[in-house]
Amino acid sequence: MLRVAVPNKGSLSEAAIEILTEAGYKQRRTTKDLSLTDAANEVEFYYLRPRDIAVYVGEGTLDVGISGRDLVLDSHADADVIMELGFASSTFRFAGRPGVADSIKDLAGKRIATSYAGVLQDHLAEHGVDASVVRLDGAVESAVQLGVADVIADVVETGTTLRQAGLEVFGEPILKSEAVLIKRHGVETPPNGIQQLVRRLQGVLIARNYVMMDYDIPADAVDAATAVAPGLESPTVSPLHRQGWVAVRVMVQRADAQRLMDQLWEVGARAILTTDIHACRI
C-alpha cells in the first residue's frame, strides 16, 4: 500500500484532509486516530506533526506526505516537492521595531528570533550576512520586547499580531510558502499509487478553479463566442430544436466566469449558466 503522511492538527491538517476527501480517499473521523487504512484505494494514511512529515518522507519511512514548503525547507530533509496544493499560503519575513533595519544587510551582528532556524540560516548564508539565530518554538512576536532578540523572522499573514507587538515588516520576503506534496529525493521508481494520487489531487485543484459554462447562441455567432471562451481544448456544440441555434458547453476559469458571461451576452449568447465541477481528469 502507498503510505501517506498527513498533518495531524491545525489549518494545514483541515485543508489536507478536505482535499484528500474530495479526491476520493477515506479519512479519519476523529483526531484520536493516528492512522487509517483505505483498503479500497490501497493507501495507508499516517497523521503526524507537520514539522515531522518531511523527515519521515526523506528517510523513506513513508512514501509521500503533505506539508508546508517552509517546513520542508526548514527540516533540511532529503525530500522533493512533487506538486503544489494551492492552500495554506504564507509569507516568511523579517520584522522589527520601526527604524531597526531596512534590509537584510542591516542585520549583520544582530540577534534574530525565529521558529524556522533552518530556513533563516540558509537565507542569511545566501546573502553573506553573519547574524545570531535564536530558535524559539511557537510565537516569536514577544522576543524583541523581552530582549531575547533585535528582530524576528516569522510567517506573516495580515500583520495584525506584529503591529500589536510594536513591530513592522521590512526588506524583501524570505520565502513564500504553501502546502505541497513531497516524496523522498532520488527515488527513480515511485511506489504504486503515487501517480494516481497526483492525478486525483490535480483533478481536485482544476475542479476548484474551473466551472462548466453552458449557453445558447445563434450558430453564426459560435466563432465569436469561441474567441471569448475557447475552453481547455474546444467547446462542445450541439444543435437545438430552435432553427439556427446551438447549445455550447465549455470549461472556464472560475475567477473569469462573470466577465466571460458579460462578453458572451454581448456576442449573442443567452441562457448562460455556470455549474461547479466536483472532479475531473484533464
Automatic annotation (TrEMBL):
<dbReference type="InterPro" id="IPR013115">
    <property type="entry name" value="HisG_C"/>
</dbReference>
<dbReference type="InterPro" id="IPR011322">
    <property type="entry name" value="N-reg_PII-like_a/b"/>
</dbReference>
<keyword id="KW-0479">Metal-binding</keyword>
<feature type="domain" description="Histidine biosynthesis HisG C-terminal">
    <location>
        <begin position="207"/>
        <end position="278"/>
    </location>
</feature>
<dbReference type="InterPro" id="IPR020621">
    <property type="entry name" value="ATP-PRT_HisG_long"/>
</dbReference>
<dbReference type="GO" id="GO:0003879">
    <property type="term" value="F:ATP phosphoribosyltransferase activity"/>
</dbReference>
<dbReference type="Pfam" id="PF01634">
    <property type="entry name" value="HisG"/>
</dbReference>
<dbReference type="Pfam" id="PF08029">
    <property type="entry name" value="HisG_C"/>
</dbReference>
<comment type="similarity">
    <text>Belongs to the ATP phosphoribosyltransferase family. Long subfamily.</text>
</comment>
<dbReference type="InterPro" id="IPR013820">
    <property type="entry name" value="ATP_PRibTrfase_cat"/>
</dbReference>
<dbReference type="GO" id="GO:0005737">
    <property type="term" value="C:cytoplasm"/>
</dbReference>
<dbReference type="InterPro" id="IPR018198">
    <property type="entry name" value="ATP_PRibTrfase_CS"/>
</dbReference>
<protein>
    <recommendedName>
        <fullName>ATP phosphoribosyltransferase</fullName>
        <ecNumber>2.4.2.17</ecNumber>
    </recommendedName>
</protein>
<keyword id="KW-0460">Magnesium</keyword>
<dbReference type="GO" id="GO:0000105">
    <property type="term" value="P:L-histidine biosynthetic process"/>
</dbReference>
<keyword id="KW-0963">Cytoplasm</keyword>
<dbReference type="InterPro" id="IPR015867">
    <property type="entry name" value="N-reg_PII/ATP_PRibTrfase_C"/>
</dbReference>
<dbReference type="GO" id="GO:0000287">
    <property type="term" value="F:magnesium ion binding"/>
</dbReference>
<comment type="function">
    <text>Catalyzes the condensation of ATP and 5-phosphoribose 1-diphosphate to form N'-(5'-phosphoribosyl)-ATP (PR-ATP). Has a crucial role in the pathway because the rate of histidine biosynthesis seems to be controlled primarily by regulation of HisG enzymatic activity.</text>
</comment>
<keyword id="KW-0328">Glycosyltransferase</keyword>
<keyword id="KW-0808">Transferase</keyword>
<keyword id="KW-0547">Nucleotide-binding</keyword>
<keyword id="KW-0067">ATP-binding</keyword>
<feature type="domain" description="ATP phosphoribosyltransferase catalytic">
    <location>
        <begin position="49"/>
        <end position="203"/>
    </location>
</feature>
<comment type="pathway">
    <text>Amino-acid biosynthesis; L-histidine biosynthesis; L-histidine from 5-phospho-alpha-D-ribose 1-diphosphate: step 1/9.</text>
</comment>
<dbReference type="InterPro" id="IPR001348">
    <property type="entry name" value="ATP_PRibTrfase_HisG"/>
</dbReference>
<dbReference type="GO" id="GO:0005524">
    <property type="term" value="F:ATP binding"/>
</dbReference>
<keyword id="KW-0368">Histidine biosynthesis</keyword>
<keyword id="KW-0028">Amino-acid biosynthesis</keyword>
